[in-house]
Amino acid sequence: MSKTTEPRIIHIRASGVTLPAVSAAGDAVAGRVMRRGEEVEITPDLYAATIDRTGASFLDQTPEEQVKRYGMVKWADGPCPPEIQVGDDDEGYRYKAGLRAREDAKAVSNPTDRREALADVEAEYGDVLHVRPQYNPAHPIGF
User: Fold this and answer.
1) Whole-prediction pTM value?
2) What does the pLDDT look like over 51-105, one tens digit per residue?
3) Would you say residue 84 lies in a domain?
4) Bridge partners of residue 9, in order along the sequence
5) Are residues 59 and 103 in the same domain?
6) Are 67 and 97 within one domain?
7) 3 state SS of 75
């Protein structure tokens, strides 16, 4: 591990990475769960908030160390590659984004434009908007 305290940009490669938040006074406050595709600037204060009781920060892990510990690379240095979209590994996030996009498309007043907007929503989010819960007889309401 190399200790890097200079400001740098990282991008999240797997949703669920939790970064501590730092107040304007430099105090650690409730953290933020990051989504795949988000970018964050690691400032000296944020870096300091990630240091554990042994003096190590998880942000210093190399990709190889991340794979060894987590089974995958969860973050990487630099801006996010364009092929990674925010939240694209989280069906719940994509479902909510699809619902918002559908409502925006329905609000378009011109019928031709509305039809095109709805087709765009279907092309982008159809895979998650049409998923039905699987039947589970052990669940109290059946799914």
Assistant:
1) 0.63
2) 889 999 999 999 999 999 989 999 999 999 998 888 777 777 788 888 899 999 9
3) no
4) 41
5) no
6) no
7) strand
